[in-house]
Specification:
By secondary structure, this protein is an alpha/beta fold. The chain has one domain: Aldolase class I (TIM Barrel), CATH 3.20.20. It is built from eleven helices and twelve strands. The strands form three sheets. Strands 3-4-7-8-9-10-11-12 form an eight-stranded parallel β-barrel, surrounded by six helices. It has a two-stranded antiparallel sheet with strand order 1-2. The radius of gyration is 21 Å and the shape is globular.
Amino acid sequence: MATVTIGNRVVGDGEPCFIIAEIGINHNGDLDIAKKLIGAAVVAGCDAVKFQKRTPELCVPPEQRSLTRETPWGVMSYLDYKRHIEFGYDEYAEIDAWCRTHGVIWFASCWDEPSVDFIEQFSPACYKIASACLTDDDLLRKTRRTGRPVILSTGMSTMAEIRRAVSQLDRSQLLIAQSTSSYPCPPDDLNLRVIHTLRAEFDCPIGYSGHETGLQTTYAAVTLGASFIERHITLDRAMWGTDQAASVESGGLIRLVWDIRTIERAMGDGVKRLYASELPSRQKLRRVIA
């Protein structure tokens, strides 16, 4: 049975679903918003929160750097906007302390190699490879060398690309997420049965990273055997930002975690048995007792 340990949690077959609240860049560069989002994840009972870390000068293509964009902070170049929403060392040190105080695991998806070095200063429980970075072999190898568990997201990828990415990583420390990189993603494009396809080919925990609206399809992923679930979270889906509309607000997050835990209890172990709760009905309604 494939399992990987992330912080104090064992993730994989036979274990409770590992629930990740993806904060990403929904904090809009505001530490207070980030803390409120962490708090919402803690109240809901999530196991972990995840951020995104980029070096804008490396991640923004040269032809896009000077393009202007209207933002809540005024009109600025796209490069300056990306700089504005990035946290530095002091902010992440406070995030690290805040998460430790509240007993929740935190980690990040690093979009470039210097960002791995940056996040490594905080000894994260694991890393995530964003779908956009799945074909970046240098980044994959850099992340592998940390020796920490790696979650590989597979949006916008072919099976051949996924196999190549897996070959660059340590299989004993690998988790793979079925994902579709549309924001928000229509149900017809979620293809949840790929969870089974990935489980059949790769001997590691398989999960689901969703960008859809609503919760129904995430529940379906759990019943299909997803070992971990990741959903973007927000304080308000109407907030400014590219990922807000495909995110779950705090009330929905509470419902999501509660319902996943209920589904897990209801799934059982597959062994048919007579329950004590059935005995009164059996005695009252069954006419012939074998």
